[in-house]
Amino acid sequence: MEALTTFPDADMCPKLTEEIGAYVRTSMTKPKASDKPTTEEDKKVETEGKHEVEAKPKPEPVPPQPQPVVVATPRTSVVIPELEALKPGPDGKVDWTPLGQITGTRPPVNKYSLSRYSLGEWRKHNENVLNSDIVTESNIVDYNAKTSMMQAFGTIDKQQSENYKRLRQKAKDIFRWKVEVERACKMITEEVELLEIERQRLKGASKVLMLPESISRQCLDMRSSRSQPDLVADLAEIQLVKEMNLVSEVRETLKTTLNQIEEQLKINKAAKHRIEYDWCDKTMAYNTDTINLSLSTKSNTILFRPGSTRFGEFSAPLEYWEYFCRENIENCEAVRQKSVDLRSTLNAILVNNGRKLRNQADKTDAALAETVALTTELCTKLKENLMTTLQKIADMESLIQNLQDAVRKTDAAMKLAQTRLDNRNNWRPHGESVRDQPHLGLIEEVKKIHETVTSLLGQLKNAERVREGLLEKRIQLEKDIASKNKTLITDRERCGTVRSHYPSASELAGL
């Protein structure tokens, strides 16, 4: 439907008829009476003026003055032919003052007479007074006005009837679209409420996820306090790390899903706001058109509204309005369908994540139980090895005591042999101090005793070294046994107690 901003050509005031236009053109092209002299007296006066001008001496030549440029306008186009016919008066002067309006030569002003206008100006003035153009124009205006009044009311009644039908059809269209918008608004409102429930469920699942994360982290922290030999990446440690990674992965998935739900919730609310705003606009437009349909020329509320024919600042074509209505409803439905799809995937995400966490928790418990069994077996072997080591230490200490006694017994034999040699070296006189067989035998005896003592001392040193090694091994075994006992307490009692509070799969799914 195209809006009417003016009257149709058939309803406008009639134009001038050919006869009236021909009459006006004829009256405008009549020759003027003042264009040239028509009487004998005018010719005689003009001739006398020429003779007087020729009898007088010629004045000195005056340098030409620059003349103003005359622009060809409707008024000056009539005056230019008269300017070309200007001639000086009897006294040889030409009056160019504004009194003459540049229409002719001024008569002379002397001591005998005073004439203000020329004869041509007087005749022109009379023609202007007797001109009947205004009377002809009044006839034309009277004809046009009566014709316009005859057609005005018929045209107005016709346009009012057509516009009433247009307004009624427009009101029906607005009502139809208003019903569609209201239905879409109700559906998107329900979807916003359902998505909000799912968001709360997801937030609850995220809060429950803090418990397995805390259990895994606490188990890792307790196992990190084990002694140095047991700080190994065993099977339980690997499963706990996997559990932590899985919890982090599930948390990231839930966080991403929560962000998607919150973003979709914002989109839903924005679509709900747009559709509600559109519903309000259509309700106001429908009420406005309903009020307009109830108005008539006899209504008490009609007034003059200056500027009402101008289009509004945000007015648009009808095609755009229909496109906007359809597109708004389609966009709202697309947003709602996307929200429904997101809600349908949320339950599967929560159930799968809960099942994964529960399976990983079972694997971790099994790994801890296996680690406890291996540690218990190793601790038993360490205790048996410690008993053997203690027995070896006792035997080695007895051996060391025997070696020390043997070394002490060789001291007397060494003293005897060395005393004998010293007596023979110091107390035999000159020729008697010879290297005889007894002297060589004593030297050999000292040498053998020294070698024997050296060998015994080496054995004693080895025995002491072995004893020190056994003592170190004893200390190491005792430390390992204490470490294994501590590990058993950590894995079997502390971690087992903590992991007994691990949530079930349904709790992890937010149910």
Characterise this structure.
The chain is mainly α and 511 residues long. It folds into three domains: 110 residues, no CATH class; 193 residues, Ferritin (Up-down Bundle), CATH 1.20.1260; 105 residues. Helix content is 73%, strand content 0%. It contains ten helices and no strands. One of its GO terms (biological process) is cilium movement involved in cell motility. One of its GO terms (cellular component) is nucleus. Belongs to the tektin family. Keywords: Cell projection, Cilium, Coiled coil, Cytoplasm, Flagellum.
Please report the distance between the alpha carbons of the first and last residues.
57 Å
Could you tell me the number of beta strands?
A: 0
CATH class call of the largest domain: Mainly Alpha
Tell me the count of domains: 3
Mean pLDDT value? 77
Family: Belongs to the tektin family.
Coiled coil: 178-205, 244-271, 386-420
InterPro entries: Tektin-like, Tektins
Region (Disordered): 23-69
Brief summary of the model shown:
One of its GO terms (cellular component) is microtubule cytoskeleton. It is built from 10 helices and no strands.
Question: Secondary structure elements and their pairing?
Answer:
Blueprint: H1 18-28, H2 40-55, H3 76-84, H4 119-129, H5 133-208, H6 210-224, H7 235-294, H8 318-427, H9 437-499, H10 505-508
Helix pairs in contact: 5-7, 5-8, 6-7, 6-9, 7-8, 8-9
